[in-house]
Amino acid sequence: MDADDFPARVETERQTELDRLGSSKRLVALTAATLDDETVLCTAAASEAAAASVFADWAADADGDAADAFAAMADTERDHYGRVAGELGADVDAEEGAVHEFLRDLDATVERAGGVVGRGLVADRTLTQFVSYFVNQADEARADLFRDLTAETAADTERAVDLLAAAADSDEDWERALEAAVGAVDAAYEEYVDALEAVGVDAKSVC
Length: 207
Hints:
It is a single chain. This protein is an all-alpha fold. The protein has one domain: Up-down Bundle (Heme Oxygenase, Chain A). The protein has nine helices and no strands. The termini are far apart.
């Protein structure tokens, strides 16, 4: 395993879960079936704020390339929060979901970098559903905003892969990174299933 095939390996390990997380039910789960502009934007802003907090804490706890990478990720998420909150015209409190809680428990750089890759694969699918929501609302400006956020989050996922390539010195390191990446996906999926079941929706289809 190496940096070139790491994201694809994570996707292979959790293809079904990622497919379901990329379905239109994703926003139903995140908003408890309250699909209106304000709730959708608040949900996005709260998540961006939580991610910024995790990455900032990691940056403060690291050094060298890892500190720089995590600080850059925190800057990205703070910027995302500001742009989404700007659409609301109000501040939104951070709300940590299962993925953020999972990430906070990671200590080593290889595990954190792997966790960011898993989080990024989930975020890509989640943000795509935000885009679709605003396309369906005929709000192209907000759809474009979330397209930009999707691309920028993907860039930070690549940053995590680069960090992992520099930090992983052995097959054991790669396996630890893979376990963390898969764990992030699992955390998101378990939360997704529980949220859908709470509103009486079947989580198993991808429709």
